[in-house]
From TrEMBL:
Taxonomic classification: Bacteria, Pseudomonadati, Pseudomonadota, Betaproteobacteria, Burkholderiales
Record's bilayer topology term: Multi-pass membrane protein
Signal peptide positions on this chain: none
PANTHER family, sorted: ARGININE EXPORTER PROTEIN ARGO, ARGININE EXPORTER PROTEIN ARGO-RELATED
This protein's record includes keyword 4Fe-4S: no
Transmembrane segments: 61-91, 112-137, 149-172, 184-204
A cellular component term, taken from the record's GO annotations: plasma membrane
Principal location class: membrane
Organism of origin: Paraburkholderia phytofirmans OLGA172
A Pfam short name: LysE
Record carries keyword Cell membrane: yes
Protein name: Lysine transporter LysE
Keywords: Cell membrane, Membrane, Transmembrane, Transmembrane helix
InterPro entries attached to this UniProt entry: LeuE-type (IPR001123)
Any GO molecular function: amino acid transmembrane transporter activity
Length: 208
């Protein structure tokens, strides 16, 4: 596989990473409502979930999954229900950004990390990304298709996490003053909850 092909893939991945999707909105929602640490944990959780999709693509599981309308619909509904569950939890919360004490804060960040992970794993659009995009940059005569598929997936995930970290730092810097006001912090958390509910409903009703 040529360097030119890899560069084209990097450019395509970057463009796709810049387009807002459920994962990005989940990450930005956490960042704006709860700060940089929460956003970074969400970003790394989402990135780990992307490697699950890459593994599924390499082993052929994604192709089997997408071929089954029942499995595809089931995952879509589970993902939608999970986002709605997170949203309702945020709407019922008191709106505190993050616990101050060490153990409580670590527990909260750990939870956000795994929420990001599940948000990505249960997103059928990510599976479509790996099945639809990666083969476009590979040749039918490729002597090492699995190796190059993995290389493209890792590159795409590196572009994704780099873009996510940039977004988190920018969003956290721009909204830091808002979070220091308890009333505004509570409002941000409620808004984040409404956003998650909206994302869940959108995922449940749209045709992918």
């Amino acid at each position: 596989m040529s360097l030119h092909t890899y560069m084209l893939f990097v450019a395509a991945s970057l463009v796709l990473c810049l387009v807002p999707g459920p994962d990005m909105l989940f990450m930005l929602g956490r960042t704006i409502a709860q700060g940089r640490a929460a956003g970074l944990c969400a970003a790394f959780g989402i990135n780990l979930g992307a490697y699950v999709h890459l593994l599924a693509a390499v082993t052929g599981l994604s192709a089997l999954f997408l071929a089954s309308a029942t499995a595809f619909t089931a995952v879509k509904w589970v993902g939608a229900a999970y986002l709605i569950y997170l949203g309702l939890g945020a709407l019922r919360s008191k709106g505190i950004a993050l616990p101050v004490s060490g153990d409580a804060k670590k527990k909260a960040l750990h939870l956000i990390f795994w929420q990001g992970f599940l948000s990505d794993v249960l997103n059928p659009k990510v599976a479509l990304f790996y099945i639809a995009l990666l083969p476009q940059f590979m040749s039918a005569q490729d002597p090492s298709p699995v190796k190059h598929l993995i290389a493209l997936g890792v590159i795409g995930n590196m572009v994704g996490i780099s873009t996510s970290i940039t977004y988190v730092f920018l969003a956290a810097r721009m909204t830091g003053a808002l979070r220091r006001n308890q009333a505004i912090s509570a409002w941000l958390t409620k808004t984040m909850g409404a956003l998650f509910v909206g994302l869940g409903l959108k995922l449940a009703t749209e045709k992918i």
